[in-house]
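May I ask you to review the protein record following this short note?
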Amino acid sequence: MGKVYYVSKNVGLGLFVLAIIALATIIALSIAYDKEKAKNHNKPGDGAIHGTSTATPATTAFTSKEPWDNYRLPDSLVPVSYNVTLWPRLKPNADGLYIFTGYSAVVFTCVKETDLIIIHSTKLNLTTFNGHYAKLSGLGIATVPAIQKSWLVEKTEYLVLQLSSRLTVGAYYILYFEFLGELADDLDGFYRSEYIDDGVKKVVATSQMQATYARKTLPCFDEPAMKAVFNVTIIHSPDTVALSNSREIDTADTINDGVAVRVTTFEPTKKMSTYLLAFIVTDFVSIESNQHQDLLIRIWARRKAIEASQGAYALNVTGPILQFYEHYYNISYPLSKSDQIALPDFNAGAMENWGLITYRETALLYDPIISSTGNKQRIASVISHELAHMWFGNLVTMRWWNDLWLNEGFASYVEYLGADYAEPTWSIKDHIILYDVHVAFSVDALTSSHPLSLPEDEVNDPSEISEMFNTISYNKGAAVLRMLSEFLSEPVFAKGLSSYLNMFAFSNTVYTDLWDHLQQAVENTPGMDIPHTVHDIMNRWTLQMGFPVVTIDTRTGSVTQKHFLLDPDSVVDRPSQFNYTWFVPIKWMKTGVEQQPYWLLHKTDTNGQMRVSGEDWVLANTNVSGYFRVNYDADNWERLLSLLNTNHQSLSIINRAQIIDDAFNLARAKIINTTLALRTTKYLSKERDFIPWESALRNLHYYIFMLDRTEVYGVLQAYLKKQIQPLFEHFKTITVNWTKVPTGHNDQYNQINAINVACSMGVMACRELAKSWFKQWMENPHNNPIHPNLKSTVYCNAIAFGGVEEWDFAWSMFKNATLASEAARLRSALSCTKAPWLLNRYLEYSLDPTKIRKQDTISTIQYIARNVVGMPLAWNFVRARWSYIFQQYGKGSFSLLKLIGDITSRFSTEFELQELRKFKEDNLHTGFGSATMSLEQAIERTISNIKWMTENKAHVLNCLTE
């Protein structure tokens, strides 16, 4: 366990010398590298590398099962270090293309005899040397075979070199490349971002290497376990700044091919994975802090954003969060600097490149006047998530993408801890229930879910890798790790983490390595007692998909567990070595008194302490400390409902949310009846807290989506109007007729709920309020009277109940917005119109990058699909243009993952199911890439929705009209 590669003991001894000779290797590499450059007079030019051929290389057909046909690299070669020089051109060449040129040399060692060198390379024009795409040389006394043949394999994205003889085990070699690539606007690899400043187009060269895009930037061993040291040099215009993972150590102005350039050289990086590389050339400026001892912290953004102090909040929270993690992990921050940069075009929310974290502007920039509380929380949470990766993910990295949850689930859990340390008044740790636990439940209750840790052979090509960046890896990973921390206790959990990170620093692991160190922490903690080893407990939560519903019969004390499925008639095709049973840690209370935690270790058990009668009641999974749902006998349900109706504050805020969420989902699974689920919302007219309301609204959102095209919707709307009216009036009172901001962080969120639901459900005072605020803004565009917290909901409702004048005004304000979060609010609100022609026009805009940024295309279509009027329009739009959308945004892209799910979320008829299946059949030749699993989940959800409508529509009508 814990070895980076599968090698024999004898070969392992050869690897031991790597640390000793690392410095000598880097020096030798630099000398050899400089010799190659001098020998070939190869300064990168404006579109070609002089004296060499840059024709697009021929590619081999994909027919056989040779080593180069496997998506995984052979285990015969191990990289040690790279020297990389890149020169991105921020102006188009004579052909109108933005390009970059570069040189690289990788030092590697041979750990198994081989006459093949296989290295990743794609979408690069490689210079040929004597007819081959690389030069091979040796270090020291290594005998260097000749290259007999070289070719590219398009499907597996390899460059293959066939050698005349075998490489020597233990010897070190240098592979040298020259290349040219397009600095495209495709948001991956080394790419181009653009923005307008005072009417002038500015270009930024930036990068996104995760998961498999480093190979688009330079030939490299592009797998997470192939860690190496990177020596980076960037050539750029003197009026720009170059950034990379490590600190700059030298800049020199010179002339290259008649062009004045600046050459920036960076410190050698720590040993790291290729997917964490970052290269940026920009005219951005920064603010910095040296308050964190010997660590340079900088926030980079557009000059106007920095001058408007939009980076100040990010800078203020970064230091405290880093300090928290240093204490939590008991390991100092591993690098000498922490750069964070806000990019105009960025596909993900943020990326944890080691030492140079990239963000969407909405995830890093905060304006204290224009931004909302939600914007502020998102920035703190995303920064906390990315900084958590600096240790967990970057310092210690999963060996392969099948264990991505180790990276993302962990960061998604501890981001709440880091943000809570920076903003202790927010009670943000409670939000994990809404944003991770409940979100994970919704996907993990499908038969198309998957285990947290998949077998390696199920995750191979780039599309399969991208599919792993999903709800299971992030949200379920967070929920399960939180449960583990709860039953171990946070100090024991943190102790095991620290041991794990120290042991495997700068290397790679599998999930069992983490279990080993947590088990050691348990064994070294006096009085710590768990019923099985960490391995035996946690393997049941990570190696099988899904989660249990625990049923407690308080009449008998019987406790049972069963795999929870939203559709109980669905067939589980994926086998489980544990037969879908779990070791379940249950924290519980009896009539308001916490009880001794209890472990359910079998499918059925009896706990006499849970037998109650009379007025006594049982509540299990207190504060949702475990990843499971809870059902009770009818009598106990009645006692809990009575408690909600008479004294709801005797239950914690989290458990009120839990009761609602469990009841609605148990009803969808036909475990309890729909009437019981709806009864959990009767007390809401007295509820004032955000988390229970949010839980209820998310579940009622399903009812709205199922029923808003049916005759039942009017009754549902009337019921929700009645329930929301007291909350609306409550906030009107405490804000003194909407003139003040609620004091509490969560109250500010619940005020948004009150206005949004009241307006949507027909509270006329709310609609008039929204329309009047928006009208005031239209009359004086330079003075927006709407508080930032309320902008999203007011914009949406004003546009929904307005016409083309409101829409065109919002569009104009969107195009002129100077803060990304304000532009994002307006872009979402524009989808709220009820006019089909406006929605169709907006759909067309979404594919026009002069109107909607490419990074925002998919989410814009999603917003339109969530509108009951827009849903069929978006569905037809995507079906008609699937091939184009897939080519532009698909294959390995994260952005497609939720598109199909959102568009089809209302599907609940046999006809819609047939359309969905036909869509799948008609586009098999095009493919679905990272959306493949999402499509299967959409089909499964639609089948479940059809059944739900058949069985529950009449019940809902009857319940709400009683």
Summary: DSSP finds 28 helices and 32 strands in the chain. Confidence is low (pLDDT under 50) at residues 1-62. The longest helix spans residues 9-40.
